[in-house]
Amino acid sequence: MTFSHDALIFAPADVDLAQSPLAGKVDAETYVLGAFNPGMTRLPNGNLLLMVRVAEALRTPMAEQHINALRWFDGGYCLDAWPLDFVDTSDPRKFMMRGGGWRVMALTSLSWLLPVELNPDGTRIEAVHYDKAVTPRASYQCYGVEDARISKVGDRYFMTTCSVSPERHSTTLYTSDTALDWTLEGIVLDHQNKDMLIFEGLIDGKYWAQTRPLGDLYFAYPPGSEWRAGPSINLASSPDALHWKPYDKPGIRPHAATMATARMGGGAPPIATPEGWLTLWHGVEPSGVVGVYRTYWSLLDQDDPSVVLRTSHDPLIEANPALTDPIKELMYIDNVVFTTGIVDAGDHYVIASGEADLACRITHIPKSAFA
Question: What Pfam families is this protein classified in (predicted)?
Answer without folding.
Answer: Glyco_hydro_130
